[in-house]
Design brief:
The complex is a heterodimer of chains A (651) and B (525).
Chain A: E1 12-13, H1 22-38, H2 46-69, E2 78-88, E3 91-99, H3 101-124, H4 131-150, H5 154-172, H6 179-210, H7 215-221, H8 227-245, H9 253-256, H10 262-271, H11 276-283, H12 285-288, H13 292-313, H14 319-339, H15 345-372, H16 390-404, H17 410-423, H18 427-456, H19 480-501, H20 505-514, H21 526-549, H22 563-569, H23 574-621, H24 625-648
Parallel strand pairs in A: 1-2
Antiparallel strand pairs in A: 2-3
Chain B: H1 4-21, H2 26-50, E1 60-68, E2 73-79, H3 81-100, H4 112-131, H5 135-144, H6 146-156, H7 161-194, H8 201-208, H9 213-230, H10 239-246, H11 249-259, H12 261-274, H13 276-303, H14 307-327, H15 331-362, H16 378-391, H17 398-410, H18 415-440, H19 475-493, H20 496-513
Antiparallel strand pairs in B: 1-2
Classes of the chains: A mainly alpha (651), B mainly alpha (525).
């Protein structure tokens, strides 16, 4: 697959139902605008409007999907030009959308899961005075995310890319009473911007080398570029992906982002936004197809990240943060998959979709638990909750089985396929990446089982404790508006994987967008990998049972622990490194510059200015006649004026 | 002979006299000032419609009468697309500033009539700077706008207003004098080539084309230093934080929003077309200053403790972007730079106004005196945030279009500078969001918002006191900010009408320099 050009399906101009695809963005954006501008007047019905616009977008998305399946695969890529956005001579950026199987898949995920989480939020946020604002931001997020996946150029992608960053910022910082919320939101935005630099510079290179930023034009001509340029683009795009998707070395913001309300964690920081990096690589596959080295770096980042996520996930005691590191790790799998190239693009997207179901379900379950436990997030203060929250327990358990990859649940099909494909990579790569992916599966089963035991099984450790605000814990099942979305997602956790994987249904549908799924032939056959994965997962789960399930666990975390646990609790020192490399030197530099600017530059410049005045005087002497006398009088006048001003002194 | 520009010049001048006459009654003076400013806005709209971007005339709506025949000095006016958008920006900002300063507490013995009268005088001066097409006349306006601004800062400003006003005046005057030497040099050179000296801009552009590079460089430097002081490039920037911090908010908006753009406008109108060889020769130097300005200004903005100085330093960073765009010599970058000049006026103008609104509630300029203010003033918090987003060039806001154009346009000719400048994007996010966090987010705190209980420890734990009565934005304040918010969003999504006005004039400027775009439209498209 290094032929140079990608035989993309010619995009036809959108017609019929697809001609209204702008509605997908306009509906949620309109909802956000009404809720933000309408102010308190919309408090009573704002959340309903928020839900209605997303549901309408979902309904339209389903209709569009159905009408698209009726077309021939080559005709499923449609282009919708809305208006000229940024246009200066050779640079032409349309405000335009591309409707194709890949973007439609994301539309269904975003509006589908988005609808469920909107509905869930009605109940979850019912006690919050700012619920209207919450729904406005959630709508804003959906609109931006749809721009991200529907845009027909890298600049449109960038618009959505930073737009979802804004929504993420607003929602992480939503609970202002938490002092850490503002810092976490700022950190997320900043680390994302570091990634965005990569995306921006990649766009600049495309314009310089190809004169365009449109997907179809870039992809059809990327083969003209030298291999160094292509490698640079792949790495810069990957930097963008690392920022948005919490991949090494930009992973530290995602766990902190859990300061936001739980529906936000489920929708933005698990199911949709953080998977944008995977979308970016899959979307740009004609570029990645050309650079073996670029894809190797992608795979390496994915593999490193999936291990970091697993290891740290084993040590945390915060319900949502364990899930956050699990997300980091699962996205590592997806990045690894798309780094594999044509054997993995569709697999990465498949895992993204199944993960969207089960991880959103797991987060909503966590939210349901915390909702019933006075917003307690420490799993050591939980235990035995299965009796008190049967629906939550059941749906969470199904998500758990899907995540650790037990057949026939969703995760088994999507993760197992990635691990098998990883083993098919050439030579040592296959063994290394396949091995890492297998190890990750065992670790995943370990930390998820630990979570399951500490929260739902074992002794109810909360009975003798009180929450921070001094209340007793009275765990109870959540209202219908919360449990119904959890049940729907649980259905997805059970069945989606088989539905997508059997007969390569999803891969066939995605083919016009990401190319045909090549069959993986590796050192280990798919069957062997499948058996190994399940066995290792069971071993991981069994180990967790042996360690945590057989004796009562303390309600406070043990402090005398071995070095690996200490390291994992400290995020493997990622934050400490950031602090030492950037934050502290940065603070020092800033302070020094402020001092220099106030004391030094000011004085030096005043002196230099006087010197320059003298130089111009010499220049003036060169001139002759009237001009000179005129200039002299002008100078004299200015001095007089100056003197007068100084004497008047604003008396 | 077109009268539109002359009317634009005279209307605020008449207004200032009327307002000065009415100054004994605050209400009458204010109403008259607002009426004249709105009239000017309507006139600017008429001018916008009368201007034809598709025309091949380099300058339009021209008019000219002799002033000093001995030296060939004319009162001649005309605009290109670049000057037109700046005049439109002035016409927009002055009524906003008048609305924003409506209820300002003035220093003892000063009247609102005096303040608004000076504002309107300044408006005439600013329009003159952008509309003048005679180089000598430009110089006169260039110096003339100093006077009203000097008095606005010196009479109506903060505690250190006299120092700041004098520093501002000295810097600008000095720059102006250096420029005067070059203006005269231009005249002499034209006399040598044409046989008869002239100050007419278009004639000078033709005459200078053949001038040798050394002459061009000397004359270029005279203009450049004056402009680099105005649109402060590091290291000539130190007057701006003082002037910006001490100026009353309304004057600060015009100072940073418009007055400083005279410098960047000057680069485009005078440095580039008059001295093409020198421009190409010295561009590398200017580009280094531009990139230093972006990084230095951003880092200093991060370190500021005073909100108004903060805004001034962010502007220094933004001026770095504008200078980068102008001297990268591509139509994308330079068009972006001109749009940046407009957008910066809107977004930094708004930032200045919202900072003023915070200060008028808390009574302090210091960031540390605030905290958790969004709880008390959610609408002010939201609008402050919008101004901040525009300042950090978030896609979807106006500033993104200009910053993106500057960067993507500069990259083909100056990749290293562009990549360094791109770091400014991260720093911008840091300084904006950190300021917002300290002032608006988290629990309510800070001596400006929470009455401090007496006794030891009160200073370290100011949250012990009761919340002061702090009101959210009133209707007037919302009405002042609303047009700016609307422009931030509309120009972020649909900048085409403005870009279409700017692009042809930028193209003409660059062809006067003699450079062509490295990236050209693909064939067959």
């Amino acid at each position: 697959m290094t032929t140079g050009t990608f035989a993309a399906a010619e995009a036809s101009t959108a017609s019929g139902l697809a001609g209204y695809a702008w509605l997908l963005i306009a509906l949620p954006a309109l909802g956000a605008a009404v809720l933000l501008l309408g102010g308190r007047r919309t408090n009573a019905w704002g959340h309903l409007l928020g839900c209605a616009t997303i549901l309408a977008a979902f309904a339209y998305g389903v209709a569009l999907f159905i009408s698209s399946t009726a077309l021939d695969p080559e005709e499923r890529t449609q282009d919708l030009h809305l208006f000229d956005w940024i246009s200066v001579n050779a640079l032409e950026v349309d405000f335009g959308l591309q409707i194709d199987p890949l973007s439609l898949t994301f539309v269904l995920l975003i509006t589908g899961v988005g609808s469920l989480i909107h509905i869930y939020s009605i109940g979850y946020m019912s006690h919050d005075a700012d619920r209207r604002k919450f729904f406005a931001y959630l709508n804003l997020f959906v609109a931006a995310m749809l721009v991200l996946v529907l845009g027909n150029s890298f600049v449109m992608l960038y618009l959505g890319w930073e737009g979802v960053g804004l929504a993420s910022y607003l929602l992480i910082a939503f609970w202002q009473h938490k002092p850490e919320a503002g810092s976490a939101a700022k950190k997320a935005f900043l680390m994302n911007r570091v990634g965005d630099l990569g995306l921006a510079i990649a766009i600049f290179i495309m314009f310089r080398e190809l004169g365009t930023t449109r997907y179809d034009e870039v992809f059809s001509r990327v083969g003209e570029l030298g291999s160094g340029t292509v490698l640079a683009i792949t790495l810069l795009l990957l930097l963008g992906a690392c920022g948005k998707s919490g991949q090494f070395p930009l992973q530290a913001w995602l766990p902190d982002a859990m300061a936001g309300p739980t529906p936000v964690s489920a929708l933005i920081h698990a199911a949709t936004m953080v998977t944008a990096g995977v979308y970016l690589v899959a979307r740009s596959h004609p570029i990645y197809d050309l650079s073996e080295d670029g894809r190797l770096v992608v795979m390496a980042i994915g593999a490193v990240t999936l291990l970091i996520g697993c290891v740290v996930g084993c040590a945390y005691d915060d319900f949502k943060k364990v899930l956050a590191y699990s997300t980091v790790s699962q996205i590592g799998y997806m990045i690894l998959a798309v780094g594999l190239g044509p054997v993995g693009y569709a697999l990465g997207i498949m895992h993204l979709l199944t993960h969207g179901f089960f991880k959103a379900g797991l987060f909503l379950g966590a939210g349901s638990v915390m909702h019933g436990m006075n917003d307690e997030g420490n799993i050591r203060r939980m235990g035995g909750l299965r009796k008190y929250m049967p629906i939550t327990f059941a749906t969470w358990g199904l998500g758990y089985l899907a995540l650790i990859g037990i057949p026939p649940f969703s995760g088994y099909f999507s993760k197992d396929a990635i691990i098998a494909a990883a083993f098919s990579a050439e030579g040592w790569r296959g063994w290394l990446f396949g091995g890492v992916a297998l190890l990750g599966a065992a670790l995943t089963a370990f930390y998820m089982t630990r979570l399951l035991i500490l929260v739902f099984l074992g002794q109810p450790r909360w009975k003798d404790l009180r929450s921070e605000d001094g209340r007793e814990y009275h765990p109870h099942e959540s209202p219908l508006s919360m449990t119904v979305p959890m049940i729907v997602l649980a259905v997805g956790s059970v069945g989606a994987g088989a539905f997508f994987a059997l007969g390569d249904r999803l891969a066939a549908w995605l083919e016009p967008s990401v190319g045909p799924l090549e069959e993986a032939h590796g050192a280990l056959s798919h069957t062997v990998v499948g058996i190994l994965t399940v066995v290792l997962s069971l071993l991981g789960a069994g180990l967790a049972f042996a360690l945590f399930g057989r004796k009562p666990q303390p309600a406070t975390r043990p402090e005398r622990v071995s070095f690996p646990v200490r390291a994992a609790r400290a995020d493997l020192y990622g934050n400490a490194l950031n602090e030492a490399l950037f934050a502290r030197p940065g603070t020092w530099l800033t302070r020094a510059l402020v001092f220099v600017d106030n004391k030094g530059v000011d004085g030096v410049v005043n002196g230099t200015a006087a010197l320059l005045g003298g130089t111009s005087g010499r220049l003036r002497r060169l001139q002759t006649g009237f001009v000179r006398s005129y200039a002299l009088s002008m100078l004299g006048g200015s001095i007089l004026l100056l003197a007068a001003l100084m004497m008047v002194r604003f008396s | 002979m077109s009268w539109t520009l002359i009317a634009l010049l005279l209307l605020p001048l008449v207004g200032s006299v009327v307002v000065a006459v009415l100054r004994r009654s605050d209400a009458a003076a204010k109403t008259a000032a607002l009426a004249f400013a709105l009239g000017e806005l309507v006139l600017a709209g008429v001018t916008w419609v009368a201007y034809d971007p598709a025309s091949t005339d380099r300058l339009q709506l021209t008019s000219s009468v002799e002033w000093i025949p001995n030296f060939g000095v004319h009162l001649s006016f005309g605009v290109d697309g670049i000057a037109l958008v700046m005049i439109a920006l002035i016409a927009l900002l002055v009524p906003v500033v008048i609305g924003g300063s409506w209820a300002d507490k003035l220093p003892e013995g000063r009247t609102a009539g005096g303040f608004f009268s000076l504002l309107l005088v300044m408006q005439t001066g600013m329009v003159g700077v952008f509309a003048a097409t005679d180089v000598f006349l430009f110089y006169v306006f260039f110096e003339a706008v100093l006077v009203p601004m000097y008095f606005l800062i010196g009479r109506f400003g903060g505690p250190r207003r006299q120092y700041a006003a004098m520093k501002f005046f000295l810097y600008s005057l000095l720059g102006g004098l250096i420029m005067l030497a070059s203006v005269i040099g231009l005249y002499v050179t034209s006399a040598e080539t044409l046989g008869k000296g002239t100050f007419d801009w278009a004639t000078l552009v033709e005459a200078m084309r053949t001038a040798d590079t050394t002459t061009q460089i000397w004359l270029f430097l005279g203009f450049f230093i004056a402009f680099a002081i105005k649109a402060p490039l590091v290291p000539l920037h130190t007057w701006l934080p003082d002037a910006g911090a001490e100026a009353p908010v309304g004057a600060g908006v015009l100072l940073v929003g418009v007055l400083d753009k005279i410098g960047t406008f000057g680069f485009l109108r005078y440095c580039l077309p008059l001295f093409p060889a020198a421009s190409k020769e010295l561009a590398p130097l200017v580009l280094v200053l531009a990139v230093i300005g972006i990084l230095y200004g951003s880092l200093l903005a991060v370190g500021q403790t005073d909100m108004k100085r903060f805004v001034a330093y962010t502007s220094i960073a933004h001026f770095g972007f504008i200078a980068l765009g102008i001297f990268a010599f591509t139509t994308q970058a330079s068009t972006g730079a001109v749009l940046y000049m407009v957008n910066h006026g809107i977004s930094t103008g708004m930032l200045f106004l919202v900072v003023g609104m915070v200060m008028s509630r808390g009574g302090s300029r210091l960031i540390q005196d605030y905290g958790g203010m969004a709880k008390l003033t959610p609408v002010l918090g939201g609008l402050f945030f919008v101004a901040g987003l525009s300042s950090l060039a978030l896609p979807g806001t106006n500033s993104f279009i200009s910053e993106f154009l500057v960067l993507i346009g500069s990259f083909p000719t100056r990749p290293v500078h562009t990549v360094l400048a791109t770091l400014g994007m991260v720093l911008a996010a840091l300084y904006v969001l950190w300021l917002y966090q300290r002032v608006f987010q988290g629990p309510l705190r800070g001596t400006a918002l929470v009455g401090v209980a007496g006794g030891p420890g009160a200073a370290t734990a100011p949250e012990v006191g009761a919340a002061r009565e702090v009101k959210d934005l009133g209707k007037r304040e919302i009405a002042v900010l609303a047009p700016l918010v609307a422009l931030i969003l509309v120009l972020g999504v649909y900048p085409k009408p403005v870009l279409d006005v700017i692009t042809p004039s930028v193209g003409a400027t660059l062809s006067e320099v003699g450079v062509t775009d490295p990236v050209t439209a693909q064939e067959g498209k």
